Amino acid sequence: MLSIIVAVAENNVIGKDNGLIWKLPRDMKHFKETTTGHYIIMGRKTFESNGRPLPNRTNVIITRDKNYKAEGCVIVHSLEDAIKEAKNDSEAFIIGGGVIYDLSMPLVDRIYLTKIRHTFEGDTLFPELNMDNWNITEKRDFEPDEKNEYPFTILTLDKKK
Ligand SMILES: NC(=O)c1ccc[n+]([C@@H]2O[C@H](COP(=O)([O-])OP(=O)(O)OC[C@H]3O[C@@H](n4cnc5c(N)ncnc54)[C@H](OP(=O)(O)O)[C@@H]3O)[C@@H](O)[C@H]2O)c1
Predict the structure, then answer these.
(1) N or C: where does the chain have the smaller number of CB atoms within 10 Å of the terminal CB?
(2) For the chain, what is the mean pLDDT?
(3) Residue 59 burial (CB count, 10 A)
(4) Given this model, what pLDDT does residue 146 score?
């Protein structure tokens, strides 16, 4: 199974200046719990924005640069090769960013979608979702608290068969 995991603002913004805009530790916990032990597939820019391989996961980086090296990571040169690398995983995760979400959208079975109930200025967007193609199979609401500034909802979307 191939899944996207993403956090999106109300206006579809997902990033700015090659970084995340908001700080929501509760959503980071969900990301960690969901992806730990699995393959995570990302664009080179998202990898550099993280600054290091994420622990306890197989980090697969997509780049056109044939000389690209990143210690502790698997480097590939297409999304297809990234998916091949992860073929024995029960669930592999596309973790961004905008370009890689766009490319993988037609191929994924599931989307873990964190919808932040706030708009942000940014330069990277998540592709428009056609909800005719997706069933909402799980929905959890989170209200702001001392550590999480914005309200958000975590949805699981499964592709209609
Ligand atoms: N909110 C969220 O959940 C979330 C999650 C992840 C990332 N983000 C944000 O998204 C932003 C980064 O996204 P982005 O769209 O700029 O970049 P990206 O998707 O992370 O990476 C783009 C890079 O991937 C490589 N690539 C793309 N298509 C390729 C192809 N067909 N074949 C081979 N390589 C290919 C290229 O690397 P080379 O240039 O090396 O060839 C390209 O520059 C950041 O702001 C980050 O914080 C947000």
Answers:
(1) C
(2) 98
(3) 20
(4) 97
